[in-house]
Automatic annotation (TrEMBL):
It is found in: Cytoplasm. Residues 169-262 form the Fibronectin type-III domain. Belongs to the cytokine receptor-like factor 3 family. It comes from Octodon degus (Degu). This is Cytokine receptor-like factor 3. The keyword Iron-sulfur does not apply. InterPro entries: FN3_dom, FN3_sf, Ig-like_fold. One of its GO terms (cellular component) is cytoplasm. The gene is Crlf3. It comes from the Eukaryota.
Length: 430
């Protein structure tokens, strides 16, 4: 019998194709057996309980446990140890060379002849007819119970005495909206017969094992801050019925993330100290003055920019919270050209000019939001003598002002900023 190097190239190529197909078929079969082993794990429900049932019943259950024990020396039992992973690694050593064969085949029979020979020789030593034995589900222990109707009635009475039974949780998450450094979570009742007194929202990173409370109250919307960009988080919500102490079952967890870069204030600016995430600025020095700007122009038209005033200091008519097309050093306030802002007394300034309309004065806990959109005619931005127009909506305390802001150049992203002339002001941006 000739060696692999003596085979005709076409014959060698055919052998390589057959070996690759065999490896792929082996992988599919191993995947099915792995799924069967996982189902057996779930059916047993735990190594301790599985052993107890096998010991008490013997026969098929014991055989099933012995099969599963062959995949790992640390802990014995169908469930409770990484057996499926070991099965997968065990099989990967057999089909892993299939990729090498596929590459050799793609190279053709001329220049890759040596690679085809190497793969064919290696494949001849791989056993693709050997698969791990997986127990049938009928041979795996499964806990079941049969109770008299009288027992069921007693259990039912206790359940209804201490709680409720429902086919689904009474509240579910309906929407997750990404924000820079945050996610807005909205939920709603799905049980019309359930009267909610309070809601409880929890979240966690998908890599974490523990949920943490982030909101308890009567609202059906909450923005979860301190969200890292491009990281998946899980959210769930439950409700407390009117006049009850216990919480309802949790909603089905929903996964959300934010792709938007978090808003940050510029570091190292004299007169302000920042939080660790640089989204909170505290005015702590009255000796210096000037505008504290964002680190970058991270506000994009079409988004909502929100400032929340955490604490207040002595107000001044030059105070400002707003956005601008570019940073300008040496300015003591955003009440200037190419900027729109709100003073702490509620006055609104557009390109340095005070508007007639005014918002309520800023107090502790106030939120000021900016919604800015490009004004377009068809698909083209309105250009008035070289100027570009943005439609601005500023809201605070359930009141808003709407106006057009004229800029001397097209601007899709903006800086934000603030200026306070006395210490004590603390503002969060998101």
């Amino acid at each position: 019998m000739r060696g692999a190097m003596e085979l005709e190239p076409e014959v060698l190529l055919q052998e390589a194709r057959e070996n690759v197909e065999a490896a792929q078929s082996y992988r599919r079969e191993l995947g099915q057996r792995l799924q069967g082993l996982q189902e057996a794990q779930r059916q047993v429900g735990g190594p301790g309980r599985g052993r107890a049932r096998a010991a008490g019943t013997g026969g098929a259950e014991a055989r099933a446990l012995r099969v599963s024990e062959s995949f790992g020396p640390e802990r014995r039992g169908v469930e409770g140890s990484p057996r499926p992973r070991r099965v997968w690694e065990w099989g990967a050593r057999r089909w892993g060379s299939a990729g090498e064969g596929e590459i050799a085949i793609l190279g053709g029979v001329e220049e890759q002849n040596e690679k085809l020979w190497s793969f064919t020789k290696k494949a001849s030593h791989i056993q693709l007819d050997s698969l791990p034995e997986v127990p049938l589900l009928v041979d795996v222990p499964c806990l079941s119970a049969q109770l008299d109707d009288s027992i069921l009635n007693i259990v039912k009475d206790h359940i209804f005495k201490h709680g409720t039974v429902a086919s689904r949780p009474p509240v579910q998450i309906e929407e997750l909206i990404e924000k820079p450094g945050g996610i807005i979570v909205r939920w709603c009742k799905v049980d019309d017969d359930f009267t909610a007194q309070d809601y409880r929202l929890q979240f966690r990173k998908c890599t974490s094992n523990h949920f943490e409370d982030v909101y308890v109250g009567s609202e059906t919307e909450f923005i979860v801050l301190h969200i890292d960009p491009n990281v998946d988080y899980q959210f769930r919500v439950c409700a407390r019925g009117d006049g009850r102490q216990e919480w309802s079952p949790w909603s089905v967890p929903q996964i959300g993330h934010s792709t938007l870069v978090p808003h940050e204030w510029t570091t190292g600016f004299e007169g302000y100290s920042l939080s660790s995430r640089r989204n909170i600025a505290l005015r702590n020095d009255s000796e210096s003055s000037g505008v504290l700007y964002s680190r970058a122009p991270t506000y994009f038209c079409g988004q909502t920019l929100t400032f929340r005033v955490e604490t207040v200091g002595q107000p001044d008519r030059r105070d400002s919270i707003g956005v601008c097309a570019e940073r300008q050093s040496g300015c003591e306030s955003l009440q200037r050209d190419q900027a729109v802002c709100v003073s702490t007394n509620g006055a609104v300034f557009v390109n340095g000019k005070e508007m007639t309309n005014q918002l309520p004065a800023v107090t502790s806990g106030s939120t000021v939001t900016f919604d800015i959109e490009t004004v377009t005619l068809g698909t083209t931005s309105i250009n008035e003598g070289g100027n570009f127009k943005l439609r601005v909506t500023i809201s605070s305390s359930n009141r808003e002002v709407v106006f057009d802001w004229i800029l001397d150049q097209s601007c899709d992203s903006l800086y934000f900023g603030c200026s306070f002339f006395y210490p004590g002001w603390k503002v969060l941006v998101f």
